[in-house]
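Chain A, query sequence.
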Amino acid sequence: MSLARTFEIRFRRLATARFGSLEAFMRATGTARNTVQGWTTKGRVPSGVHLVRLAEIFDVSVDFLLGRTEVPDMAHSCE
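Chain A, predicted structure.
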């Protein structure tokens, strides 16, 4: 699976679990609709700064968002 597709799946799952919907995520975080659409329909992956912010919002590691680990928790991914 591609990096962009892995990110899309994980982003959708995390945003929906935490905020209830992508719309609610956009409202709560002030993220533009075009940005989210790029991530969810156009195969785009966020820049490093945005990845770090998303990891903080969802309390997961950047590596998890990108599919480099199956362990979402940053503390456990270093063990």
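The chain has a mean pLDDT of 92. The first helix runs from residue 3 to 19.
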